[in-house]
Design brief:
Immunoglobulin-like, 3-stranded antiparallel beta sheet, 6 strands
Length: 108
């Protein structure tokens, strides 16, 4: 039992550290707009990153109950420091919103 408790605590700590890194990253994303269809959502968002390095952003769609009905990792290639991205995300249900959960630099 103690080994199981240690494994659960280690996993929780790992998730917390990963979440903190994603939130404290110098990469920022802000949703400009989203357009909802019956089985997709088109999300337009601004990405600001230091040095214009490549990043990846997690885009999600949610239904009326708040359940996730679609998700995708969107690759933003190296380039300008600030860029506007539009991504159409197919969904498993009827979405009511689209969001960018976070962005992080691409690890080589």
């Amino acid at each position: 039992m103690p080994a199981l408790l240690c494994a659960v605590l280690a996993g929780a700590l790992g998730l917390a550290v990963t979440g903190f890194r994603n939130q404290s990253s110098a990469v920022q994303a802000e949703v400009r707009s989203y357009a909802v269809g019956p089985a997709e959502v088109r999300v337009t968002f601004d990405v600001t990153r230091p040095g214009g390095e490549p990043v990846q952003c997690l885009v999600r769609a949610r239904d009326r109950q708040g359940a996730e009905v679609g998700r995708a990792l969107v690759q933003v290639p190296a380039g300008r420091r600030q860029v506007t991205v539009t991504h159409t995300l197919p969904t498993r249900g009827r979405p009511i919103t689209g969001e960018v959960f976070g962005c992080s630099p691409v690890k080589n």
